[in-house]
Fold this sequence. Notes:
mainly beta, SH3 type barrels, five-stranded antiparallel β-sheet, two-stranded antiparallel sheet, about 10% helix, about 55% strand
Amino acid sequence: MSxxxxxxxxxxxxxxxxxxxxxxxxxxxxxxxxxxxxxxDERVKDELDRPEAFLAVTDAKVFDASGEVTHQAEFMTIxxxxxxxIIPANDSGSGEK
Length: 97
């Protein structure tokens, strides 16, 4: 890791600050609940538009078609090509008003 300072005392680093966003992710075969990590001041869509082949998910639970948990992991990656949709947990709502 490198940290550089300019003449005004501002520092620059190669660490990228991200915030964890709880989400429900539907792949072609499974539903996954966990946290995806989005850069500060960006949207989930911005993270999905990145060119990397995989999306990191932490505190992941993988559900099969019947709703049973088949796997749990502190960290996993998901092929972006297999993602059908993502709902940030704070947007999922129950439809109640």
